[in-house]
Amino acid sequence: MFADQFTRETPEERLNQLDEGARLFVQQFRADRAALWRRARGALFALPEPQRRALTDEWNGNRWLPGSPEYLLDFLRGKGIGLPPEQ
Q1: pLDDT (tens digit, 9 = 90+) per residue, 25-78?
Q2: Which of 3, 6, 33, 47 is deepest in the core (most CB within 10 A)?
Q3: What are phi and psi of 54, to 5 degrees?
Q4: What was the pLDDT predicted at 5?
Q5: What does the angle CA 24 – CA 25 – CA 31 come to, to the nearest 5 degrees?
Q6: CA 9 to chain CA mean position, Å
């Protein structure tokens, strides 16, 4: 009935669209994660050297916390460190 109004895609075109979507997703995920790392590191480097060193030593010495920006931000919040606003 309306078949002439629909474009037919080849399997290769559909696969290319899926690949592009996956690439964009990964790119955005990496950008978001990098922004979280910058935020956490900004909060750490805004502290006085003795406090920064103590927190860094505690963070690096904890075997149970994964080395991810989300956990570092939560660790800093738990220590009462004010975080810079999200950008």
Answers
A1: 999 999 999 999 999 999 999 999 999 999 999 999 988 888 899 999 999 999
A2: 47
A3: -65, -45
A4: 67
A5: 90
A6: 34
Question: The tokens of 61 are what?
Answer: 């010495």
Please list, residue by residue across 36-74, b when 16 or more beta carbons sit within 10 angstroms of its beta carbon and e when fewer do. eeebbeebbeebeeeeeeebeeebeeeeeeeeebeebbe
- DSSP symbols for 6-61: SPPPPHHHHHHHHHHHHHHHHHHHHHHHHHHHHHHHHHHHTS-HHHHHHHHHHHHH
Query: pTM of the full predicted structure?
Result: 0.75
Q: CA 36: distance to chain centroid?
A: 5
Structure token pair of residue 31: 């950008």
- The span from the CA of 17 to the CA of 73, in Å, is 35
